[in-house]
Amino acid sequence: MLNVFLLSLLMRIGSSKVLSAVQCISDDDLITKCYNDNCKLSALLKNHPNKALSLADKNLRVFPFKDVKDCWRRLFTDASVVKACYMIQAQLGNHNVEKACLSTENDECRLDKKNTEELRAKKEVGDKIHPSAPWLYSVIHILDKALIMTGAPGRESCIENLISSMQEATGPEEMAFESYTSSIFRASDEPQAKRRKLGAEPPLFPSDSVASPTLTCSVPRVSALSFEEFTEHMWNHRSPIVINDAVSHWPALSDRPWSSSEYWSQRTFGGRRLVPVEIGRSYTDEGWGQRIIPFGKFVKDYIRREEGKETLDTSENGELTSQESTEDQTGYLAQHDLLAQIPALRKDISIPDYCYAEPPGPERGTPVYEKKLQKREAIDKKATRLNPHRESTVRHEDDNEEDSEQTDPIINTWIGPAWTISPLHHDPYHNILVQVVGAKYIRLYSPHTPASQIYPRGMEIVNGSSKSKEMYGESQQSDRDQWPASSGDQAIDMSNTSKVDIAAIELSPAEAETWDSLWPGFAEAKYVETVLREGEYRLKAESNLGRGVSDSYLGCE
């Protein structure tokens, strides 16, 4: 076992190598487009990482995300990495860095002197860093925010290696999500080793559940299809199906179970890793918003809904704070590429071969077809203005050119408690949903359902400076890249979402007359439905309108 001196030395060497790589900027590095002078850019990162962060953050918010130059995302990432490495070195005995961090001239990673002494006293537990050391939270949160906000272009492995090294160097915790959970989460008072042996750690989700509805128009179910059968169904039937017995080999369903709180605690560094969480019943509701919080806090406040205990969190600048549990609101980790943020989780699944089948294009007259047609026409008009002799490229047949541009599957993760809902909406992509833990009720309407029955929303004005609406379309991947990033009133295209509140209809069926008066004709719209359970696939064409209610839901799509 490493002694404390060697452990600290190895971590300092690792962070020093990272600093050297970040601060030695080559002429062809994409970050050079931020600055005309590489020497000044390197000096900015080395001496004033907070100023570099502010500069990058300002430019991240000026444009829609799809229009932000990669150099600004890289600058935000590199400044975050530098700041995190300085904090690591300061806490592990690099006195030169610590002196710089505590000086008044370089306040980027300044620590209160009293807190620094307390951290040093708590730093060592045998041969490990103390798991309650507050600086661990701050460093991880700085790095995770870079991953979540920018994707960390070119630095994904660097950040993952830093976090993995810190986790390996940290002492064991006595229980899953120890820093975030109260006594009611403890399975017993036995030592961790004995609890683990007895399998007494509680599951990630509580045992309460939502009663399964009676299905009247069920989605057809089939056993594992061959690749050819799957492709034939997509092209010739173009209808939803549920596929059984196709992912039983996933480690997430067996030896690395995603139902285990202990496993998730390990993979999220005791719950310290940050995740984006939607707060509110539905993204169509007033007051809905999104927060970036530690995974352990998400489990405590929204999955298990524990009360009466302060939990550790970080402020915007990475400083450690304590917060009371939130009010009884729904929290939903929705449509987030969690497996890219935490690569160890990616090893727990395998991409189905079905994802590589060539799908048909959207059918004429469907919302996705019309939206793509409008996009092509707009591009054609712009090109014609620039070149009047150019021939039109607008096509009206069911081509699939745009869909084929995306060669790799897009993988997203959803995690939510019972009664998590998604409003009625359609997606721009063909998708396959795999239920890993729990169950999810899903209802699907044909993309040919008349607008007079389905009531699509249109352009809606939101206040971009409002926190509750700033992330208004975050759960809609197709629209997110379109919004302006500036503050003030903004028009958001919400046409992929219905005005009909199906959850309210289902919870209050006795008020049928009220619903009929609000949305006349909707009750006559035809649909199919299913309850997707652990280990099952659901294929849905991209233009179906769907909604769902979860019973402790953890799925990948």
Automatic annotation (TrEMBL):
Residues 309-328, 383-407, 466-492 are annotated as: Disordered. Keywords: Signal. Gene3D superfamilies: Cupin (2.60.120.650). InterPro entries: Cupin_8. Residues 383-398, 467-482 have a biased composition (Basic and acidic residues). Residues 314-324 have a biased composition (Polar residues). This is Transcription factor. Residues 1-16 form the signal peptide. PANTHER family: HYPOXIA-INDUCIBLE FACTOR 1 ALPHA INHIBITOR-RELATED, TRNA WYBUTOSINE-SYNTHESIZING PROTEIN 4. Pfam families: Cupin_8. Residues 229-536 form the Cupin-like domain. It comes from Coccidioides immitis H538.4.
